[in-house]
Design brief:
About 30% of the residues lie in helices and about 15% in strands. With about 120 residues, it is of the alpha+beta class. The chain has one domain. Strands 1-2-3 form a three-stranded mixed β-sheet.
Length: about 120
């Protein structure tokens, strides 16, 4: 099993495909972006916070045509266990790198399992 931060970096790079809107929010330095997908988010009150945008898993059993993470796409998949994600995020938070988390995920083992239980496989 690879280091959780290696998998986090890989999962985070997939978020460039995520259609979440961050227009009008400047990105962090290229060096910071290269390491992880970290970007500013504009809150409803006008405050900006720094978010880590990542996936819990890029593996997905569904093949929704519109989805960049669908089963039919050919790219390397990665997975973090929920406890690994929490530990990695808290390390970044304590270091002052991020203030929040934008977390997405592929569906592995059904939608209820994906959101309520640890994901069983990792690359």
């Amino acid at each position: 099993m690879t280091d959780p931060f290696v998998r986090l970096r890989e999962l985070s790079t997939h978020m460039a495909l995520e259609p979440a809107e961050d227009a009008e929010c400047p990105k962090l330095s290229p060096r910071q972006q290269k390491a992880l997908n970290v970007s500013d988010a504009l809150m409803p009150n006008g405050k900006r916070i720094t978010l880590l945008k990542t996936l819990l898993t890029s593996a997905c059993e569904r093949n929704c045509y519109y989805c960049p993470f669908r089963a039919g796409r050919d790219f390397r998949r990665a997975t973090l266990q929920p406890d690994e994600m929490a530990q990695a995020f808290m390390s970044l938070y304590r270091a002052g790198i991020v203030q929040g988390l934008f977390l997405s995920s592929g569906v592995a083992g059904g939608r209820v399992f994906t959101v309520s239980s640890p994901i069983s496989s990792s690359t």
